[in-house]
Amino acid sequence: MSRNKRLQDLTIKDNFMFCAVMSEEENCTRFLEMVLGFPISRIDVSYERNMVYHPEYKGIRLDVYAKDQNNKRYNVEMQVKRDVALVKRSRYYHSQMDMELLAAGTSYEELPDTFVIFLCDYDPFGRGLYCYTCGMQCKEDASVECDDGCQTIYLSTKGKNAEKLPESLVRFLKFVAADVEQSESDFEDEFVGQLQKSIHNVKESREMGERYMIFEEMMRDERKAGREEGRKEGREEGALLARRASIFELLEEMGRISEELEVRIHELSDEEQLKVLHKLAAKAESMEDFEEEAKKVLV
């Protein structure tokens, strides 16, 4: 039975919805100002780059890409599933923005500041912070100026230091963490209310409904192509990756898997155990049922 989400079931943490909402310039501007703490008078969001499949990418990418009146560049990514290579990915995104600018004739001295923001529905570093801001720093002497204009910010919905952040950002992150029913509650925040209206408009839009159908079809084709490529190449690791991906795909509609179990499945290399977990994911009626049985397999 298909477990693909309907457009009506999406929340802002779903990539399609996040990019649709953040493609609205006012939403994107207010989000960036809230996170970065400085005013932005005008921003240009690359709408088609955000919402349209690019055949050169490995997989379907729906990042938010924008620039402001000072030519600063911003790349924002929703990150629901744990990615052990997240820090390296930030390096890649910064380099891609730089290469685009250099190809257009920009000199090194003229390269603008670039910001990569990961919005994570988990704690990427396990320190209980809502926000991790990272940039270049001299290891031997922190007073040495070595700012290269690149900054990466990791936001976490699992933070515990609300007193250290603006209330508006904490409320926004709680909104991101909410499920469909909870996300429609009153968060007593004007910006969250604006986002809720945008989400409602997306769900009521026939054009966006058609875009979502196309997106879902391409996702299915992408998964199918990946499975066919894995069989064709006959690579053991490819088969393991496909099996893990299928397990997480089946679990998506049942809620959030515990971080510990998610990591264990990502690291699991036993094909037979993965097959058993795949069957459990297909038959489970709830995430609790799956986790209870999965722990027995992984003993």
From TrEMBL:
It comes from the Bacteria. Pfam families: PDDEXK_2. NCBIfam families: T_den_put_tspse (TIGR01784). PANTHER family: PD-(D_E)XK NUCLEASE FAMILY TRANSPOSASE (PTHR41317). This is Rpn family recombination-promoting nuclease/putative transposase. It comes from Dorea phocaeensis.
